[in-house]
Write a structure and sequence with these properties.
The protein is built from 16 helices and 4 strands. It is mainly α. A hairpin with a 2-residue loop joins strand 2 and strand 3. The longest helix has 31 residues. It starts with a helix and ends with a helix. The model has no long low-confidence stretch (mean pLDDT 85).
Length: 430
Amino acid sequence: MKKIMSRLEGNKKAQIILFFIYVIATSGSLMLAQKSVVAFLLLLFSLLLLYFMSLSTKLKWLIAGVILIVLLPFSASQGPAYESYMEVSTLVGIYIAMALGLNIVVGLAGLLDLGFVAFFAVGAYTYGIFATNQAANFMPFGTYPLSGESFWFFIIAGCLIAALFGVLLGIPVLRVKGDYLAIVTLGFGEIIRIVFNNLDKPINITNGAMGLSSVTPPSIFGINLVYPSQFYYVVLVILGAVIFIVRRFEYSKVGRSWKAVRENEIAAQAMGIHLVRTKLLAFAIGASFSGMMGVVFAAKQTFVDPTSFTLLESITILVMVILGGMGSVPGVILGAAVVTILNLQVLTELTDWFNQLSLSGVISIPDALSPAKMQRFIFGGLLILFALYRSQGLLPAKQPTFNLKELKEEAEEEEEIQPVISTAEKNVNL
């Protein structure tokens, strides 16, 4: 077996052939099975296999795009569970974007944030208030609710407003770190939730605990987006932009500054890194991703209330980052996908299966021990196992490596070319 694996590692053609056979088999089984969670998960597993293949990054992105944009929706659309599959995929994309935002704060900058869901709530209420009649209670001008075309503007607005709240959170917590930072951010998240819960007096802005219902669905070219299969493509586009931005930041000067602050603030400051600006930038950028997805969440659910933004949601997003690997973009994507699918589909299907066995008299399981109700217990067990045996996460962060020989050759080539360039410049000047 080891010989076969070693041969496959160096043979790109064999990898591509086996990969396409696997994708065709899983997509075909999803089409024929009509409703099969196993086939759906196996098709998604192909993206993880693609990550480990020894192909160029551009080719991997191209193949992943074809699977996500064309193959997955087409295969799932052949059965009655199409919208449920797209619902899960859409929520996976939303949580991945949020986890990537938290990864900037926790994984790259090393700032423990337990109130991250507050920015998600800010984005959701930003769109929810103006996409319902609620804005007419305090806005002296305009006609409400706004049309569905305004959704595309509110994606940017939610991003900017959440970034502003991120800065407002960052300013008072610059002097604290560690456990104290966690306590302050936890308090911030609870304050935002309580404010939205009580902001119905003296002016009814958020409708309090009753929430905002009948949120106007987004529309484009006169088509109202009301189905999960339609929101799937919206989330996919936003997620692609988020991943691109995060990857660019990770290997930029700002990303290196975040990592330096994470490792040692005193040493980073001694090297000339502006601590205040660096931390505020991490809070603002991380919050902006959560705000964007809050707008999408409000439009998709058409209902917003404070119960969707509890401390448990913040802990769940933090679990995604820790489980995948702090500071690792692929790891966070995998961690968010695993936790979301486990929560929304796997545990639900297991509960239904056990209920059927109980009804048929094969096995008797108390209702309190159903997998859906044991969700937090399962998550806690996973965290303990990973803390003991995989402390760096599923896909740990990798530091970029450089080939010294290639760097020396490039330096020598530059030294050889530089005199020629200077001579040419002198001749031009003459």
